[in-house]
Design brief:
133 residues, mainly alpha
């Protein structure tokens, strides 16, 4: 403790006490905000929900490619979806719930690769040897 002169220690202690006191005085306020409609989706019925699920399934690259292979245009698919009965649309939406909506798994592969690279970098920073056999 002899490295720091006594006035420096005193002023540092006073500063720390003042900072901690200021943090203790400041009141915290929390509360719920009012909910409001975002305007991005308007789901007012089960038909609208089924329509959104079916459209997201049709955005999948594999499904879109298969429809193109069969010679079905995107506009024709949208017209057919709009003219389907509620029961048929619900059946289609239920059947397509297992499909990924619009993705093809590339993001998951990139995420795994990023994690592997981060592990290797951390091991190298810790002076560990990374051996791939």
């Amino acid at each position: 403790m002899r490295m720091f002169p006594k006035p420096l220690r005193v002023w540092t202690a006073i500063l720390v006490v003042m900072c901690l006191t200021a943090l203790d005085i400041a009141p915290a306020a929390a509360g719920l905000t009012a909910s409001r409609t975002s305007g991005t989706t308007t789901i007012s019925s089960s038909r609208d929900a089924d329509m959104i699920v079916a459209q997201r399934a049709l955005e999948n690259k594999v499904v879109a490619q298969k429809l193109r292979d069969y010679g079905v245009a995107t506009d024709d698919v949208q017209l057919k979806l709009a003219s389907m009965s509620d029961q048929d649309l619900h059946t289609l939406a239920t059947a397509s719930r297992g499909l990924p909506s619009g993705g093809d798994g590339t993001g998951a592969i990139i995420g795994v690769l990023v994690v592997i690279i981060l592990v290797i970098v951390v091991l190298r920073l810790m002076n560990r040897e990374v051996v791939v056999r």
